[in-house]
Write a structure and sequence with these properties.
The structure holds three protein chains of three kinds. By secondary structure, chain A is mainly α. Chain A has helices at 2-9, 15-22, 30-46, 55-64, 132-140, 143-147, 158-164, and strands at residues 100-101, 154-155. The N and C termini of chain A lie far apart (52 Å). Chain B is mainly beta. Chain B has two domains: 23-205, Clam (outer membrane lipoprotein receptor (LolB), chain A), CATH 2.50.20; 215-315, MucB/RseB, C-terminal domain (Phosphorylase Kinase, domain 1), CATH 3.30.200. Chain B contains five helices and 20 strands. In chain B, the strands form three sheets. Chain B has an eleven-stranded antiparallel sheet with strand order 6-5-4-3-2-1-11-10-9-8-7. A seven-stranded antiparallel sheet of chain B has the order 12-14-15-16-19-18-17, covered by helices on one side. Chain C has nine helices and no strands. The chains are: A mainly alpha, B mainly beta, C mainly alpha. At the A-C interface, helix 1, helix 2, helix 3 and helix 4 of A face helix 1, helix 2, helix 3, helix 5 and helix 6 of C.
């Protein structure tokens, strides 16, 4: 059971199993203690300051007085579908990346919008198309994409275009 | 019904008599921005500028039960549409989807704690007031490195939704290396999702570019002594790359905001041995042949940095 | 599934009338939300109250949460909103003179430690908990420690950890669990003595 909690909290149980387990974690039970303590360990690992926290007890107390909230079901009823595990050819990434692709246009096209911004750095030698592989391989692991909103740092994508051809 | 929260506007008013920098939430904004980008439904037009080029595109981003979907479309130049979901990227041409990229680890909902602590150690964050972008109020935040071996990053964050409205990478003398900005933006509301179905049926297919097979973590024995301070190795793998017989070693280093990749492979090209420095926007690339190996350094760092890093690459293994 | 999906499942349970599910969410996010709010509300006791308020507000607002954003983002915004309202209601102003120059302060954690005065008892408890966790980690066999670190700090999924550690996913699952349980075993007696509460 403890191992199931460990797997559940990482989101690695299939939805139907997770759902039935979640129904069994009541305050005061050993199972609940495990949920609490495993989360505590993770919090300590990530940020050891001001760890001691008795908040959840107090919130639970206040919740006794709250009327039960209800909301209509939003998602379609869960089917007993198991998500298909990703194939082993999946690429490895230590940081999240969502690559934004942009598109190459001919240099003669005038800007759609007059941007009276500070001067742009003078164009230096352009990265050639046959180096696109490196750019894409690098982009996979670049944190700035995720750092700035998940889909922000847009990089030109002739590298993707050329790779596809 | 999404709760509208004014992140900073009113708080700034409350703290009007004190310095804006006292609100110690600058790095928190990045977490908020990362979340918002992944979790918000939006649709708009943006302009991307770099190296005297300008590209205008439209983007739609929606979240469904099974993850995020994005569609980008060129609004100038040759017509091109791209759809991405779950790390996969397709070209959408003539109602046909062609898979062109596959990153498994996409859609990560927040900054990794290690990334955040690295960032805080290597950059100073300054809040620069509120400006208008695409008709919305945006909090401006500047991330400045301690040295000139990397770029500054300036972001404009919508005070209400946390979405990134504009971002610029700045080099020497605050010259813009690349910049992107929304000119039109609709947040939430009715957004057409009919194209999501095309994506789901394409996802059934199994073709994958061969770049992504056979990636494995290794200890290559190569090192780079002159990385700027604060850069840590985040990855060291061996991978197949298009058009090459031998596998390529890739090492990735990051300071939380910028990253540098070093690629090492046997040199079996019969082109000239000229050292090459080239760039695109904020990305610089430098390559050189060392003994019989071709070393390529790529990163969102200034040219002097990719050169310095490459010149310090050496083999330290058995 | 990711741990975000677990949140979504818990939210749906709450929306079907299961209050206990909300308790699980509070347990999971109490520290994170508390830290966020303490960035706006300096006094630790006040910050704790405001955090409690934020959770209760979130519970009441949950019927309106449609999963358009991650639960934590939504909770985060409620937290900031609650903190902001609290500050306005108490017409707090930041001190116009500060004991240190904001420009020169280092990382945020250090700055907050300088300014906050937590109760000695809580501080001691926190330090003890951290000490036990870190000591337990050191004692773990390398493969258990790595698996746990990759999961909790690097945020990798089991599949990704399996690739990095070059082992089957079942082994990853087992290593992470055994690491957690080994640390938990050392923590339980410590937490039990605190206020006689059973952990």
């Amino acid at each position: 059971m403890k191992q199931k909690i460990s797997v559940l909290m990482d989101g690695e149980l299939f939805e139907d199993e997770a759902d039935s387990l979640l129904g069994h974690i009541k305050r005061g039970s050993d199972v609940h203690n495990d949920w609490e303590i495993y989360h505590l360990i993770g919090d300590v690992l990530r940020q050891p300051e001001h760890i001691h926290c008795g908040l959840s007890d107090k919130v639970l107390e206040r919740m006794q007085d709250e009327p039960t909230v209800l909301a209509p079901r939003v998602r379609p009823l869960k089917q007993r579908m198991r998500t298909i595990a990703l194939s082993a050819a999946a690429s490895l990434s230590a940081v999240g990346v969502v690559a934004w692709m942009s598109l190459q246009i001919s240099p003669e096209v005038a800007p759609q919008l007059a941007m009276q911004q500070t001067a742009f750095r003078p164009a230096s030698m352009q990265i050639k198309a046959d180096s696109n592989d490196y750019l894409m391989a690098h982009q996979e692991f670049s944190p700035s994409a995720d750092m700035n909103g998940g889909t922000s740092y847009i990089r030109t994508v002739s590298y993707s275009k050329d790779a596809a051809q | 019904m999404r709760l509208q929260v004014v992140f900073c506007g009113l708080l700034l008013a409350v703290f009007a008599n004190s310095h804006a920098e006292e609100i110690p939430a600058s790095f928190d904004w990045l977490e908020v921005v990362a979340f918002a980008g992944h979790q918000t439904d939006y649709s708009g037009v943006y302009v991307y500028q770099y190296d005297n080029r300008v590209e205008t595109s439209s983007i739609v981003h929606v979240t469904q039960v099974n993850g995020e979907y994005e569609k980008l479309e060129s609004l100038d130049g040759p017509k091109r549409e791209i759809i991405s979901h779950d790390g996969k990227v397709w070209d959408y041409i003539n109602h046909k989807m062609v898979l062109v990229g596959n990153n498994v680890h996409s859609g990560f909902p927040s900054l990794l704690p290690e990334q955040l602590s690295s960032l805080k150690a290597n950059y100073k964050a300054r809040m620069l007031g509120v400006e208008r972008v695409a008709g919305y109020n945006a909090q401006v935040i500047l991330f400045q490195p301690h040295d000139n071996l990397r770029y500054s990053h300036k972001i404009w964050v919508h005070t209400d939704s946390g979405l990134l409205l504009k971002a610029a990478v700045l080099g020497d003398n605050n010259k813009v290396a690349e910049q992107y900005a929304f000119t039109q933006l609709q947040i939430g509301g009715k957004i057409d999702r009919s194209w999501v179905k095309e994506c789901d049926s394409a996802a059934q297919e199994k073709n994958m570019p061969d770049d992504h097979k056979d990636i494995k973590p290794i200890n290559s024995g190569w090192v780079a002594d002159m990385l700027p301070s604060g850069f840590k190795k985040t990855l060291e793998i061996e991978r197949q790359m298009h058009g090459r017989h031998a596998p390529v070693t890739q090492m990735v280093f990051s300071d939380g905001l910028s990253s540098i990749s070093i690629f090492i492979e046997p040199n079996d090209r019969d082109e000239d041995d000229e050292d090459g420095l080239s760039s695109r926007g904020a990305v610089n690339l430098y390559h050189k042949v060392l003994d019989k190996n071709l070393i390529t350094v790529v990163g969102e760092v200034p040219p002097r940095t990719v050169m310095q890093v490459l010149d310090s690459v050496r083999y330290n293994g058995k | 599934m990711t741990d975000r999906d677990v949140d979504q499942q818990l939210v749906e349970r709450v929306q079907r009338g299961d209050k206990h599910a909300f308790d699980l969410l509070v347990t999971k996010y109490q520290r994170k939300l508390g830290r966020l709010i303490s960035r706006f509300v300096r006094d630790p006791a006040e910050a704790e109250d405001v955090t409690q308020d934020a959770f209760i507000k979130a519970y009441r607002a949950l019927p309106g949460f449609r999963g358009e954003s991650a639960f934590y983002t939504w909770l985060y915004r409620i937290g900031i909103n609650t903190a902001k309202n609290h500050l306005l209601a108490n017409k707090r102003r930041a001190p116009t003179s500060t004991p240190f120059d904001a420009e020169e302060s280092e990382s945020f954690e250090e700055a907050s430690l300088l300014r906050e005065v937590n109760t000695p008892e809580n501080e001691l408890m926190s330090k003890q908990i951290v000490g036990v966790v870190q000591a337990s980690l050191q004692q773990l066999p390398e493969d258990l420690r790595s698996a746990l670190t990759l999961r909790e700090i690097e945020g990798l999924s089991y599949e990704e950890i399996a690739i990095v550690m070059d082992c089957p996913i079942g082994t990853v699952r087992s290593r992470i669990f055994r690491a957690r349980e080994a640390v938990a075993e050392n923590l339980r007696p410590l937490l039990e003595t605190s206020k006689g509460k059973r952990w």
